[in-house]
Amino acid sequence: MKRTTADNVVYGIVASYDTDGRTHRIGHMFLPSHKRAIGILENVRRLIFPGYFSRKELTATNLRPHVEHLVAEIREDLEHEINACLCTERRCSRCEDPDCCATGAADMAVGFLQRIPAIRDMLALDAQAAYDGDPAAKSIDEIIYCYPGFHAVTVYRIAHELLELGVPLMPRTLCEHAHSATGADIHPGAKIGKSFFIDHATGVVIGETTEIGNNVKIYQGVTLGARSFPKDERGKVIKGYKRHPTLRDDVTVYPNATIRGGRTVIGSGVTVGGNAYVTESVEADTVVEQEKPGLRVVSKKHGKGGQAEPPG
Q1: Are 231 and 269 in contact, with CB atoms under 8 Å apart?
Q2: pTM for this one?
Q3: Span 190-291 CATH architecture
C-alpha cells in the first residue's frame, strides 16, 4: 500500500527518535508534574505564612486541625513528586522496588516538613530586612503578600532545603517558576545568609555557587555570575566548582551592578555602586563606584535653520 503524505510525516518523526536518544523518554517513567510541584509550593507557602494565602479565617481553635490537614496533603503530594524526580534522575524504566525511589522520597518529604520552622525563622528575618530597607514599605504584611523580591527569596529558601535533602529537579523547577513570576533568577544551590533583601527584583541573577552573608541588600538588575567556564580534556564544561562570587556580611549592591568570578570576594560592609563591573576581590568597608560618564544636554528650542540650540 502506498504511503500517504501523512504516513511519511509520521514515519519521519518516529525515525528521528531512534537517531538521538537525548531528547525523548520512551520506555522510562513519567516526568514529574510541573503543575503538582507548583501546587505543593503554594501549599507550603500557606503553611509557612498562615492566614496570608487562603480565604480560611484561622483561629486558636481551628489552627491545629488546619495544619494537620495541610501537612498531610503536602506530605502525600511531596512524596509522589520526589519519587518521580528520583526516578527521572535515575532513568528508571519502572519503579516496583520500594528501596529504589519510594522509600527515599518518603524520608525526604518528612525531612523537609521538619525544616518548616527553620525556614519560617529565616523568612521572618528576610521580611524584616525588606521592611527596614525600603522606605516605601508600609508593613510586613505588604512585604509578604506583595513584594516580588520577597516571593523570589521565599521560593529560594524552600527550594534550597529540598536541594540540601538531595531532591533532584524539583528545586530548579520551583526557582524557575519564581523566575518567570518575579524576574529574579536565583539558583537553589546558592548559599544565602540571614536578613536578605532584593529590592524590585527584576533582572537579578544569582548563580549556583554564589555565597552571600548576613544582612545583604541587592537591587534590580544585579548579576552575581561566573567569569569563565573551564573545560576538560574533551572540551566539555567542568561542573561543580566554585565559579560565582562571595559577598560577606552587610554588603549593598546597587542597580545593574555585575560581580563575577568564583575567586571574587566582596568584603564585609562594602557598597557596590550602580552599573559597576567587578571581577576582582574588594576589601571590607569600601565603596566601589563606576566612573560617572559625562552628560550632554541639548535644548529642544530651535534657532535659525531648524537646528537645536547648543546648551548655554
Answers
A1: no
A2: 0.88
A3: 3 Solenoid (2.160)
